[in-house]
Amino acid sequence: MKISQSGPVQQRGFRGLLAGVLLVTLTSFASGLAAQQGGGVQLNPSHPDTYVVKPGDTLWDISARFLRDPWYWPEIWYVNPQVANPHLIYPGDVLTLVYVDGKPQLRLERGSVSGTEKLSPRVREESLDSAIRTLPYGVVAPFLSKGMVLEKNELEKLPYIVALRDSHLVGATGNDAYVRGDSIDPDSAYNLIHPGDKIVDPDDGDVVGYEGIFVAEANAGRAGDPATMKLTGSTREALVGDRLLPQLPAPLPMHFVPRAPDKPVEGRIIHVVDGVTQIGQYQVVIINRGTRNGLESGHVLSVWQAGDKVHDRVKSGIFNRKVQLPDERAGLLMVFKTYDRISYALVMSAESAIHILDKVRNPD
User: Fold this and answer.
1) Full-prediction pTM beyond 0.70?
2) What are the phi and psi torsion angles at 148 (to 5°)?
3) Per the count of CB atoms within 10 A, which of 4, 65, 225, 307 is most buried?
């Protein structure tokens, strides 16, 4: 896919829509953060004056080079009117730190991997996929395309496997499955999803959904009730009761803008995708806050370990009093996929081990 990098934006269809959405998002959040924070962005003490973007960089990495707090990126990013889609950054581009009225700004000069390239009226084309991403693509992409949460009210409405052909107990690539459901479209392709662990909100004990585990792709072979589906590309055994979801289009390039939420958010980590007990950098977690709480993709939250209660062995006397220790910050995460009451987030940094039920809140 190609996008034009000339003065007038020459993108059409999806490319034009993507550019418009990103530009509006960047501009609105930059102005919103400036009003909310009142200035005072702190630079990284070891920031460079210029930086040449390299293959493999992420927006988060570049932000951390210039800023103490990477989520303030929109406050220093200067939209260069000479470049279409200036918020899409490519390897070889040069970022320069300047000061305007005493406030830092980052300026961009389009370049190439072999050196800086002067801007001119001619058309320059770049692959959209070659632009740097905010997050490590390989970690997040499976959750955008196949990983999902099955919301509680949605689960019972989805088509499901009622039996496997030839009395098989489990299915795999090449097997036929008999599926029931009112919403089956014989012209559509589906992902077969296994309902995994319940996702419970610890605040009220409600089951807010189920982890959706990708099983296989399924293509309609014969309409009817039940319909016949052919399984392909299986990654685990298909079972009676597994659900079908229409396949999603390929995920958009992940050009999230790291930023703090617009309003206070207080929540908890309630699930870790790979089942570990101690959570580290670049692991995916689920938190018990979503769109109803104002969360959007790109929002950054800090993670806090709840302080223990300990016995005061010095002054407790016969009452053996306990003292509540303060919470301690454990890391940062970025939201990349939201639902009504829950969100997927990626741990961007871990200053200490992170655990399920650790608190999340606006970065300080």
Assistant:
1) no
2) -165, 170
3) 4
